[in-house]
Design brief:
alpha+beta; Beta-lactamase; seven-stranded mixed β-sheet; 30% helix; globular
Length: 502
């Protein structure tokens, strides 16, 4: 009993102490926010701030209920909702199957790579197998099933994700870049293609060569021009999944050094099939047919000559008569979410988002995915109608979230079974995409946050930790419609982050 009274008194003293500290903090934060508001960098911009204690009390706010474009801050909601609903240990699965008959070691039929949304296939991340390592496993599955030779095709099947590859609200120039690639349920190398770029002679086309992966079915035109020194880089590859055609457009300054450009691959499933087909052939495993994928109408499409052949009337989830050989699994979702947030990887985020839709609604079109995330938010005690979610990565400018909602979400995630994994998925200052944000601050590890940026938008939301690593504050700072240099906006917001560390 004495111990209980002592503990209660200690708790009460801590509570009074915290109130005193918060009162002082509030005044400091208010002054800092007023100072930032007066800076030229945010003149005429739309911006808001919310800082809350772990008990939900507001320490500082300004336009905290105003919904704004969150950019990649939206990945906080995507990754957090997924880990809460699916579990931090959830793993994406990729199946290997066949149709036809096996006779004397020869499969007279086709082999299918059945995608389950795994974004890490051949991604070259430390958490994923190399392409050859994965293909070795798949080849071993074939042999275990008694298949020594394939008298048929290798078909990449990404149909588990229905609908268009990209969200229709993404801007046209974004969809040709690696960060706007989108995809179905089977990808390869994060659905990116790397190019080597260097200046040509003034007025002549820019020198562009594809480095990895190979996409031999594609026809790419070069409509670029080498521009005068100092004119920068405005190169974009415009491509689509409607036809195997793309165009390089824009200019590249004469004085710019050679560089790598990373573009979108709209044929991730076909690329995966091609590289597995190629691997089998180079390891003396005979495949008589072509590498293929599925067109949107359900027909099998050959990557060799881009022809279509009817595949029957089986549903989107599979093919009639398909026999599963085995499955390979991704790393746990907690590790994938960490890469998503540290690297701000849009492709990973969209794969997670669409998997939520598929698991919750049985369909992964974008509207269903938004419904699925909203259901998770409601289960966490949040009011989903207070925001609008269009995609999983934050690339859409139709997304709308307020600073107060981000704070409430971060607080709600502390009650989730995935709370620890979610916190660990966030980079500290000076890490990941935050490499230039207070990288030398002696207490930089005491803030875990997600950044978000696009033209005219810069956002930071996350946790402030105590010396033992426990969250003591949540915060969200969103800026929209800025016209100043991003470095000037960043330095203004860094002043507030510095104060939070104090």
């Amino acid at each position: 009993m004495k111990w209980m009274l002592g503990a209660g008194l200690a708790a009460l003293m801590i509570q009074f102490s915290a109130v005193g500290v918060q009162a002082a903090d509030k005044e400091k934060l208010k002054k800092c926010i007023d100072e930032i508001a007066a800076r030229q960098a945010l003149k005429g911009a739309v911006w808001g701030v919310c800082v809350k204690g772990m008990d939900g009390s507001t320490l500082a706010s300004r336009n905290e209920q105003v919904r704004m474009i969150p950019a990649s801050n939206l990945k906080l909601i995507t990754t957090g909702a997924a880990m809460h609903a699916l579990g931090a240990d959830f793993r994406f699965e990729t199946g290997l199957a066949y149709t036809g008959e096996i006779t004397d070691g020869t499969l007279k039929g086709d082999v299918y790579i059945v995608g389950g949304g795994d974004p890490t296939i051949a991604s070259r991340d430390s958490i994923s197998l190399t392409a050859d390592g994965l293909f070795w496993k798949w080849k071993s599955m074939l042999k275990k099933a008694g298949i020594q030779r394939i008298d048929g095709r290798i078909i990449g099947d990404g149909r588990a994700f229905e609908g268009a590859l990209e969200n229709t609200s993404w801007t046209y120039d974004d969809t040709g870049t690696f960060y706007g690639c989108g995809g179905n349920a089977l990808g390869f190398y994060a659905n990116a293609v790397d190019y080597s770029v260097s200046a040509g002679s003034l007025g002549e086309p820019v020198k562009i060569s594809q480095t990895y992966p190979e996409t031999p079915w594609m026809h790419i035109e070069n409509y670029t021009s080498t521009a005068t020194a100092g004119s920068g880089n405005s190169l974009f590859l415009f491509t689509t999944d409607l036809a195997p055609y793309g165009e390089w457009r824009g200019t590249f300054a004469l004085d710019r050094r050679p560089k790598a450009e990373h573009t979108a691959n709209k044929y991730g499933a076909l690329t995966c099939a091609y590289y597995f087909w190629k691997y089998l052939k180079t390891t003396c495993f005979e495949v008589s047919g072509a590498y293929c994928d599925f067109a949107r109408d359900g027909s099998v499409r050959s990557g060799v000559d881009w022809t279509l052949s009817p595949e029957g009337t089986a549903g989107m989830a599979g093919t009639a008569g398909m026999v599963e050989i085995g499955r390979t699994k991704s790393a746990p979702l907690s590790q994938i979410a960490k890469i998503t947030n540290w690297r701000s990887d849009n492709y990973f985020a969209e794969s997670i988002f669409r998997t939520l839709g598929e698991k919750a609604c049985g369909i992964s079109v974008y509207d269903s995915c938004s419904v699925a995330v909203n259901e998770v938010l409601e289960s966490l005690g949040l009011k989903a109608s207070d925001i609008h979610i269009e995609d999983g990565s934050g690339l859409s400018r139709k997304n709308a979230v307020s600073p107060a909602f981000f704070c409430d979400f971060l607080l709600a995630m502390r009650s989730s079974n995935a709370a620890g994994d979610f916190l660990c998925s966030l980079p500290a200052l000076g890490e990941g995409t935050l490499w230039s944000l207070l990288p030398n601050h002696p207490q930089r590890s005491r803030i875990r946050l997600k950044s978000g940026s696009m033209e005219g938008v810069l956002c930071y939301s996350g946790y402030v930790l105590d010396a033992e690593g426990a969250p003591v504050y949540v915060f969200s700072i969103l800026t929209n419609a800025t016209t100043a240099k991003i470095g000037d906006v960043r330095s203004s917001l860094a002043r507030l982050l510095t104060l939070l560390l104090e």
